[in-house]
Amino acid sequence: MARIGFIGLGNMGGGMAANLAKGGHDVRAFDLSQDALDKAKAAGCLPVESAAAAAEGAEAIVTMLPAGKHVAQVYEESLFGAARPGTLLLDCSTIDVGTAKKVAEAASAKGLPAVDAPVSGGIAAAAAGTLTFMVGGPADAFARAEPILKLMGKAVIHAGGSGAGQAAKICNNMLLGATMVATCEAFLLAKSLGLDPQTFFDISSVSSGQCWSMTSYCPLPGVGPETPADRDYQGGFAAGLMLKDLKLAVQAASDANASVPMGAEAMALYQAFANGGHTGLDFSGIIRMLGGEQ
Ligand code: NAD
After folding, report:
1. Residues 3, 8, 9, 12: is their CA dihedral positive or negative?
2. ipTM over 0.95 threshold
3. Considering Cα of 46, then 52, then 57, then 62, what sign does the dihedral take?
4. Do 95 and 171 belong to one domain?
5. What pLDDT, on the 0 to 100 scale, is given for residue 293?
6. Would you please indicate which residues are annotated as catalytic (active-site) residues?
7. What is the whole-number distance in angstroms between the Cα of residue 4 and the centre of ligand 1?
8. pTM, two decimal places
9. 37, 97, 204, 209: most buried, per Cβ within 10 A?
10. Using a 6 Å cutoff on CB, does residue 31 contact ligand 1?
11. Same domain, yes or no, for 267 and 281?
């Protein structure tokens, strides 16, 4: 059993911290929200009063925070002062590649090995311990991170050096955003051409247009497996988070002088969907906007 600090007990972090506690670790948990702290306590973690308190005496510290600025702030203002040398830092938040590299470098300079370890899989996978982790960082840090991450996920993959986990994450989600938009368009066009949506699903899901957005996350209610579309687009992966990831991908592409016209178009469409006030809806709900609904 190891002492593990866990900072950021929101929709994702709450379930992840609970799985570390279930795995037998002594989890010192912190969040700005009292409600999140209460839930972590009920799940077997020990709530503490600050991020620094979560770091004290820990062998490893996991962060699951909204964005790069939160991670940089917690690292600089709390962890660097409170963590003992050798403590492993695992940032599982989805953040920009530049900040991920910067905080890992700063951590390493303080004798704190660090990995970026963003996840694929939503709130249900976080609770069930079936996330996929894509990890960036040195091999020895990855070797220490792997058994911890395995308690929270079904797959833990070493993507490369610092920032490589974030790079894999935003490329994956750019692909997901683009295929979701394309899947929605295909269903809407099929309907306009007089095809029954279920018939189109039956054909396309076993043809070359097949993709995860269609077969596992179909944006039309009543077609394919049960998805957020069947719950009026509630729950699932929020459109606002998809927009965040697409922005990270397009920014990273610009920084790397790479061309991502489909990613940029998906970002513009999700921005329009967000402007319509739909950031909280599941990202497959964009089919409504593409179909002409407000
Ligand atoms: P969330 O908003 O539910 O949780 C974030 C938590 O961080 C909140 O409880 C907040 O109070 C806490 N927090 C913020 N600043 C803090 C600070 N300084 N100290 C301590 N706690 C602080 O977000 P989430 O859905 O859990 O997502 C977390 C990360 O995981 C994000 O980077 C997101 O992009 C990524 N992600 C989310 C999903 C998803 O489906 N929700 C899927 C994959 C990845």
Report:
1. negative
2. yes
3. positive
4. no
5. 86
6. 169
7. 18
8. 0.94
9. 97
10. yes
11. yes
